[in-house]
Amino acid sequence: MSEEIFFLNRLSFRFPEDEEKTLDKLSFSVYRGEKLVISGPSGCGKSTLLYLLNRLYPDNCDGIIDGEILLFKKAADEYAPGEINHRVATVFQDPDSQFCMPTVEEELAFTLENLHTPFEEMKMRIIEVLKLTGLIHLRKAVIQSLSGGIKQRIATACALIMDPEVLLLDEPLAHLDPYTARQYINWLKELQVKSKLTIVVVEHRLSSWGTFFEREIQLDNNGHLVADRPFVSREPVVFPQRQCAIQENTALHAEKLSVTIKNRQLLAPLSFLVERGEVVVIAGPNGSGKSTLVKTLCGVYKKTTGTIESDSIGYVPQSPEYLFLTQKVSEEVAYSRTSSRSELAKLMTNLRLKEIANVHPFCISHGQKRRVAIAAMLADKRSVLLMDEPTSGQDAAALLELFELIDRRSHEGTTLLIVTHDMEFAASIADSVLLIKDGQLTGKFAAKDLWQNDRLLLSHHLLAPKGVTRLAESFA
């Protein structure tokens, strides 16, 4: 058997402000060279477990630990702050949270400086890792000008430049388009074979990984270990078939809309119409301008040219914590005071937020934060709702609830524009698809036609959803 590098014996963890334990009596080992996935419902403690393996917790949160945890056969609490991070690298769920410098090259250099790398070696190592990750063309790019998917790849490059023994990945596919996600997994597989790197991944989108993993650790809602087993590849979530709810009444009209920031054109002039009750998926490669479009439609970015005619617009961003204004989840959902108490209670139940109603919105998982932001916008009863990657961080049950909510609201007349890389979700929910590439609108397509067009899908880094033939036939 391979060398044991992590050992957990009846490990429990609790945040000081919580009465209940986040993780409860976990016992398992991780061996050198393993490819292990940690699965379980949104908010069950998966990310917390990763942060115990890299010593971010309890060092940075005053958490309370019971039981035993050994890292490389040494008690975890015997490591000095930051010491273990030379051997265990982490890519977080929200890549923005780990960037310190403005450009890609400066961020990589900052990582090497913290490792006391000689200056004369830095340039060579930076170029090597950028070539390895396919990011060499972004060496001088400003990180905050890039898409969420590209930021995720940059964060991975920053982890790999440390030449770690273990790579911890928290939902690494969350912001990647389907084609790039497939490339990322294949690249990770080749890297692991060459380096014998140990890879531990927190993931909901298990169907995207094929047979990559060898083993699965599954947690339940209470932070208990309920399965430690060989990994079995998954099929994607199966959604009900949705009936069209489009009304012949324009809800949003963009005409010759463009965006240029600091002499860089992010969106070329584009025009499209969306009808009341229509569900539109916005799709395309990472960095193509999808998030720029929704930010412009809701006024976060100032348009350079064109007009936007629309009913009242609500917006759920990729990083939903930017919206939060209150101290409790229940207060956040009820902030607009537009919905009745019964309507708010139903939203809290449907989006599985009741159990965290009194928790601070910043203290919940990324998937739960998205559901809070979605609930708050639905409670505000905006006529047009823009969602940027709402499926990220959501387990199967949450995805099905989100599907039902979107379907119900569209039939009530709400218009929804959704940026997503989840093609199964897109195929189930979309009436039409806006395809964007290199800041230009390729066109607006009926969803039932797009899934059959392999050329158009691949040119936009999309893959046909599994079960698309059945879905397409159902429209006939």
TrEMBL record:
Keywords: ATP-binding, Cell membrane, Membrane, Nucleotide-binding, Translocase, Transport. GO terms for cellular component: ATP-binding cassette (ABC) transporter complex. Coiled coil: none annotated. It comes from the Bacteria. The keyword ATP-binding applies. Its main location: membrane. Residues 6-246, 252-463 form the ABC transporter domain. Belongs to the ABC transporter superfamily. This is ABC transporter. It comes from Planococcus versutus.
